[in-house]
Amino acid sequence: MYLADRPLCPRCGVQFPLGDGTGPCPICTDEREYVDWDGQRWTTPARLRADGFRGEVREEVPGLWGVGTTPDLGIGQRALLVPGDGGNVLWDCTALLDDDTVARVHELGGIAAIAISHPHYYSTMSAWSREFGDVPIHVHAADLDWVPRGAEVEPWSGTEREILPGRTLVHLGVHFAGGAVLHWADGTDGHGAICAGDIVTVVPDRRWVGFMYSYPNLIPAHPDVVRHAVRTLSGYRYRALHGAWWGHVVQGDAHAAVVRSAARYLRHLGLEPDTEGG
């Protein structure tokens, strides 16, 4: 398996193809994350498999498959296989790439491109790319400084980039400077969907979403960034919004949920929302 012996930080799940796994993880030492209280640890995908971790592929909603790791590792996100003309987009990434996962993803049509919302989900993106034929990894140019040494990515810039028919990356700038979501024009119901990771995060009350600069350290996103994100998303048609974790999905009125959630967020900061709710 490609890169099976290269160091991986179990706190965030990011692998460093040319790292030596002896120093602190640059992802976790940033103020948006944290180093485990017992100190920096390192592992490898091979060691994770030996310790009983395995990949998990299951249908998130009809027509949309998720890829995760069980038991949960690091941030615990699951990726999505977003289908359409030209092949599947792997949206975001998970740490464990084992033989059963590879076989199941091939059964579901393989991967034609990888797109990552932000650096916390870079994970083992290089291994995924190589395993499926060196497919391109799309990362917003504003986050290039976070790309691990040795990882080959295709940077994009501006507000949007269609990477495959009906799958368009949209730059919002929430959480990280390059924070992006994926607009899926067909959606799971034909009315469009947003694959958001935790750039726009689906909270436990799935009628609402949230916006944060740091989740574990409770640093809020800047109000101007939230306003910009909502205005940008207003230009896209979508009824569903898929967050970063299994079951974190807003169905039916996702656009309205984003608008009202931004309005609530701003009110709790003592600010007035604009006429679009953001």
- Series of secondary-structure elements, N-terminal to C-terminal: HEEEEHEHEEEEEEEEEEHEEH
The CATH topology of the largest domain turns out to be Metallo-beta-lactamase, Chain A
What does the average pLDDT come to? 94
Number of strands: 17
Low-confidence stretches at least 5 residues in length (pLDDT < 50)? none
Strand content: 15-25%
Oligomer: single chain
Question: Percent of residues in helical segments?
Answer: 10-25%
Reading side by side through the largest sheet, how are the strands ordered? 1-2-3-4-5-6-7
Q: Which class of secondary structure composition applies to the elements?
A: alpha+beta
Round the Cα radius of gyration to an integer and report it: 18 Å
CATH A-level architecture of the largest domain: 4-Layer Sandwich
Using the alpha-carbon principal axes, give the shape: globular
Return the CATH class of the largest domain.
Alpha Beta
What do you see in this structure?
- It comes from Pseudonocardia kongjuensis.
- This is MBL fold metallo-hydrolase.
- The chain has 278 residues and is an alpha+beta fold.
- The protein has 2 domains: 1-156, 4-Layer Sandwich (Metallo-beta-lactamase, Chain A), CATH 3.60.15; 166-278, Metallo-beta-lactamase, Chain A (4-Layer Sandwich).
- It is 17% helix and 24% strand.
- It has 5 helices and 17 strands.
- The chain has a 7-stranded mixed β-sheet with strand order 1-2-3-4-5-6-7, covered by helices on one side.
- The longest helix is centred in the C-terminal third of the chain and has 15 residues, at 254-268.
- The mean pLDDT is 94.
